Structures are given as structure tokens and as C-alpha cells.
Amino acid sequence: MSNSPQINPNDQEIDLGKLSKKVGEKVQSFIDWLFDGVLFIRRNIVIIGILFVLGVGLGIYKDKNTKVYDHEVIVKPNFGSTDYLYSKIKLISSKINEGDTVFLKQIGIVNPKKFSKIKIEPITDVYRFINGNDKNFEMLKLMAEDGDLTKIVEDNVTSKNYMYHTISFTTSGLTSEKNTLIPLLNYLNDSEFYQKMQKEQVNNITLKIKENDSIISQINAVMNQFSNAVSNNQKSDKLVYYNENTQLDDVLKTKEELVKEQGYNRLELVSADKIIKESSHILNVRNNKATKGKMKLILPVFFIGLFAMLGMLRDLYRRQLAKRNLI
């Protein structure tokens, strides 16, 4: 005898009947909801029309008068301060998203409510990254063996090692260096740790320049003595023999390297006066994509949606009162 449970066909018919009934109820509820919406529009067609016209008119006005401007500043983080720079920009961005105008005022931003967003991106420059730096070239070459070179170049870790970075921010309305850019750069340069690093680095570069100048002067003196000796021997009609061990070629190469290094050191001093050194900036570039044509679509939908929501809340309130026999 089989012990498997017996399925009653009547139970299946009951289950299917319940399911069919529930589906029918859901469909009917949806139809009723649509019909209620049509009745709501019909009852309030005048108010909805007024709200639509008002929204379109106000939207057109806002589109014409709301002016958004983009601004960019190219900076060079010195003394290994790239991660510090990115963390500072991230902090400012989070404060903007939170609407923390008090913080923005504290760092010196004038009209912080108009300061809408900020971001930072590296300027990809592989040639400058590897130029004259064998370590960077070998590192990039090694990393390229295990992956796509394009992805590696644009990778977040690699890109932070590039020399220049672009800080972009947006304001609603015109701004100026005094109101926005200078306070922003002053805030980025306000770091006790990196100020100490800056002081030591400048001292090191200055000392290196002084020592290199001394070595170059000594090389020049040696070369002058040699030149004078050759000149005197030629005047005395005596033969001059040059020994391969004089190492004059190495001395000249050493001087050449020192001169190159001196040029590099003096360029480093130019940018070492700031932790985050500004290279160039562009302010008040009109952004026509930010709000162009959007407000005349957004405002009518917003006004009508708000009116419909208030109507739904009113009907819900009345139904709850009716359930409690309060009306």
C-alpha cells in the first residue's frame, strides 16, 4: 500500500479560485486608482491648469536668470602632499553636500550658499612622469607587463604621482579670486606639518645650490689653470703631450651635470614657496548645461505633484475620520 499523501482535486480548485480572486481584486484596485486619478483631474482641472502655467512661467524665468559658472585651478602639490590635497578637497565636497555653510565661511569662502560642488583630478602626463626619472620609467614598465598600460596610467594610485592636478568647482553666479580662489588656496596651504617640511626642503635646496656653485667655481678654476698652461706652452714653441689620465672629460661631464642640477634646483625654489602651488586658473566660465531648459519642466511637475499629494492626504484624512464615526 502506498503511503504518499492523496491530493484532493477540490483543494486545487479552491486554491486556484482564491488566487484568481486575489488577482482580480488587485486589477480592480488598480483600475479604481486610475479612475480616481481621472476624477481628481476632472474636479481640479482649473487649479491644475493654473499650477501648470505658473510652473512653466516661473521655470522660464529661473532658466533665464539662474547662471551657473565653472572654475578651474591647476595646482602642484609639493613635499609629498598629494594625498593631503585630495583629502582636503574630499572634506570640502562633503561639507558642500551636507549644506555646512558655517564650515565654508570659516575657511573664508564668501557667499558659501552659491558654492555648489568641488572635485579634483590629476592631469595625466606620462612623459613628464618618466622624463629624467629612471625609477618611474622602470616602475611603469614593470607594471605594464602585468596589465593594460592605459588602465595603469589612469589608475588612481599612479595618477596621484603626476605633477599637476586640476581643482574644479562650481558656483551659482559670478565669483572672484578674492571671494573664492584665494580663501580656498589659503585653506589648502594651512598645514603645520607641511609648513615644517617646506622649511626644511627650501633649506636643503638652498644649501645644495650653494655647494654646487662652489664646486662649479672650483672646476672653472682648474680648467682656467689648464687653459693657461696650454697657452703658455704654445707660446714657448714646446710640444705638449696630453695624458689620457688627466680625466678632463669626466670633469667636464661633472660640470655639465651640476649645471643641469642647478637649473632644476632653482626651478624647484620657484614653486617651493607654497605647499599647494597654483600654476594657473580660469574663473567664471558659463555652464549652459547645468540648468538650461530644466526648470520649466521641473517646476510644473513639482507644483502639480505637490497639489496631488495634498489631495491624497486630505482624502486619507477623511476616510480615517469616517472609520471612527467622527463625521
TrEMBL record:
Segments crossing the lipid bilayer: 40-61, 297-317
Keyword Transmembrane: yes
Superkingdom field: Bacteria
Keywords on record: Membrane, Transmembrane, Transmembrane helix
The UniProt record lists the keyword Transmembrane: yes
Identification of the protein by name: Uncharacterized protein
Organism expressing this protein natively: Flavobacterium enshiense DK69
